[in-house]
Amino acid sequence: MSEKLAVPMSRIQHITTFYKTFSLTPKGRHEVHVCVGTACHVRGAQNILDTVEEVTGVKPGETDPDLNFSVETVSCLGCCALGPVMVVDGEYHGNVEQAETAKVLKDCACSQEQ
Ligand code: FES
After folding, report:
1. How far does residue 108's CA lie from ligand 1's centre (Å)?
2. Cα 32 from Cα 60, distance rounded (Å)
3. How do residues 62-94 score in pLDDT, each as one tens digit?
């Protein structure tokens, strides 16, 4: 890319490591974002995060070896009134509880098996 665009490699690395949207490691088929901002935290975000880790086996900032799930925490998704909030593959789940979290993630896992 550096050669093709005639841009120094250092500049490309700067951009790819600065923006969270870019990743230098492969991501899972399903991306899970759990908000741990203040509003979500006081409404039980840690329980949601624990359930995500329990169901997927993936800790925040990691991807499982089979590339099924990538899990990230975010500071705020801009919909604090819906907290705790989780986003799975771009779909927002507000006021989520542990049982719903597990169901959403298991449905993801099942949909890729079909
Ligand atoms: S703190 Fe979670 S959406 Fe704002």
Report:
1. 23
2. 9
3. 999 999 999 999 999 999 999 899 999 999 999
- pTM of the prediction? 0.84
Ligand 1 atom nearest the C-alpha of 75 is: 1
Contact in structure between 43 and 83 (CB atoms under 8 Å)? yes
Residues near 71 by beta carbon (within 8 Å), at least 6 away in sequence: 32, 33, 34, 52, 53, 56, 58, 59, 60, 61, 62, 63
Which two three-digit tokens encode residue 87?
């986003």
d(CA 71, CA 56): 9
Hey, what domains does the chain have and what are their CATH numbers? 25-113 (3.40.30.10)
